């Protein structure tokens, strides 16, 4: 893609702090460094978001994530956890429209990062939950 900042990074038109690279994946430090070592993992092939992945690209990208995560754990022995974050489409806070995974090392509960999930379970009956599951399941089987 011509005007994609991540494609330009892959093509070395823009500098980056490379962490890992092979024929399929490029991983580099996020300039925001939300936490020390915050790394982005991207497919070299331009894919806008999770909805555009084919099975091969998805399996190749996700197969490399544990290797990079383990390297981060060894590089930062004080790391106590890691968040894996992927935002898809603008409403979900995707700001660069080349799919990417954030690997966010966690050092303490006081890190400048949090994810909280609202508990809306009281809004759904057991029958409604079963209907939601069936609705998604039908689409999975058709894909």
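-> sequence recovered:
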């Amino acid at each position: 893609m011509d005007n994609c900042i991540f494609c330009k990074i892959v093509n070395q038109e823009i500098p980056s702090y490379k962490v890992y690279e092979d024929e399929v994946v490029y991983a580099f430090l996020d300039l925001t460094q939300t936490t020390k070592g915050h790394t982005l993992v991207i497919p070299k092939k331009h894919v806008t978001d999770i909805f555009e992945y084919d099975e091969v690209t998805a399996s190749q990208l996700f197969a490399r994530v544990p290797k990079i995560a383990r390297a981060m754990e060894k590089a930062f022995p004080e790391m106590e956890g890691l968040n894996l974050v992927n935002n898809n489409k603008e409403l979900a806070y995707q700001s660069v429209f080349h799919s990417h995974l954030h690997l966010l090392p966690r050092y303490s509960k006081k890190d400048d990062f949090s994810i909280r999930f609202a508990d809306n379970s009281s809004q759904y009956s057991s029958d409604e939950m079963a209907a939601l599951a069936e609705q998604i399941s039908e689409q999975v089987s058709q894909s």
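The CA atoms of residues 38 and 77 lie 15 Å apart.
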